[in-house]
Amino acid sequence: MASLFGDDYGDNPSKHFLVRDHGLVEFYWERVERHWVGTHFSVQAHRLRYAEPELVNRVIRDRYGAFPGPVTFAEVGGLLADRGVPLREVPYPAEAGELRAYWQPDAGIVISVVEGSYYGRAGDLYRVASSSTGIP
Hints:
Layout (H helix, E strand, L loop, with lengths): L9 E4 L3 E5 L3 E8 L2 E9 L14 H7 L8 H10 L5 E3 L8 E6 L4 E6 L10 E6 L6
Antiparallel strand pairs: 1-2, 2-3, 3-4, 4-8, 5-6, 6-7, 7-8
């Protein structure tokens, strides 16, 4: 599997699944019969709190510059609102009190935001992920 992000990645393989980790961005694959099928991706924004530039893949840094630290949901939500992109808060019972989830139905994207203190600072973006199953 060739990658747009170069060869700076780690694989977490199993017999039926593969996660290709490019630091900030991860891609998920599932084996269907004899073929690998991409199922979803995620941007692990919470990793930016470690302030280690090499956590962001070199290809991404070269294109977009440095990622100096955490990004807040207020920043992202504001940019999306300015562009007319609606977000709808959805229940997130698995992490109630720690993470909140927002759904963007047109893009099939779930945005996770830190609410408590376990996953970082309240209001920080935790993860942006495509959904292979959708949000009910």
